Amino acid sequence: MSQQSKGIFTVGITGASGAQYGVRLVQELLNQSYKVHLVLTEAAWQVFKEELRLDTSDRNRVLNELFPSHLGQLHTHDLHDYAAPIASGSYQTDGMIIIPCSMGTLSGIALGASGSLLERAADVMLKEQRKLVIVPRETPLNQIHLENMLKLSKVGAMIVPAMPGFYHLPQSLDDVINFLVGKVLDSAGVPHELFTRWGAERR
């Protein structure tokens, strides 16, 4: 029998560099018994192939490899499936995290375009005043990028740039990834033990 879900999160993974962040976040939520509605853009699958060196010709197999034993808690949706429950504000979730978030997706959300299920689900978070955490990954940032982030911040979104800290003295790439994902989970109100907090060793 599957463990009862702690809650429900929507997660979007776009084609921005940093697919590892999105994968680790979903793994952590599933490990903590959250139900996850996952939406991946076509560009995200391309990044999976280039950055994670995965054969994406069989997408179901990829999901099985990345999230083994958790498929009962993981629900994936086509990018244009507007009949998905997360497209409606009447479907209750604890929030949404887009990690990493491309500037194209960020722009669509800032405009309220709802040009895909991912954008629509984010719009639902804003109109229902639920948690929306956006993890932009781009550098350098131009004025359009910055104005779109400011616009979303003003209407309640939390902007958590993919800027890992190094005061915890990471020893591996996994440490760097865990730190950033941990900061994102902090913003979403999800407890975790992905990194040692500053001052914890002094207690």
Which helices and strands appear, and what pairs or packs with what?
Blueprint: E1 8-13, H1 19-31, E2 35-40, H2 42-51, H3 59-66, E3 74-77, E4 95-101, H4 103-111, H5 117-127, E5 132-136, H6 143-154, E6 158-159, H7 173-188
Parallel strand pairs: 1-2, 1-4, 2-3, 4-5, 5-6
Helix pairs in contact: 1-7, 4-5, 4-6
Helix-strand string:
EHEHHEEHHEHEH
| Percent of sequence in beta strands | 5-15%
- In CATH, what is the class? Alpha Beta
Mean pLDDT: 94
Range of helix content: 25-40%
Major β-sheet annotation: 6 strands, parallel
Strand order of the largest sheet: 3-2-1-4-5-6
Number of helices: 7
CATH homologous superfamily? Flavin prenyltransferase-like
Contiguous low-pLDDT stretches (5 residues minimum) are none
CATH architecture call = 3-Layer(aba) Sandwich
Q: What is the general shape?
A: globular
C-alpha-based Rg, rounded: 16 Å
Q: Provide the domain count.
A: 1
* Class by alpha and beta content: alpha/beta
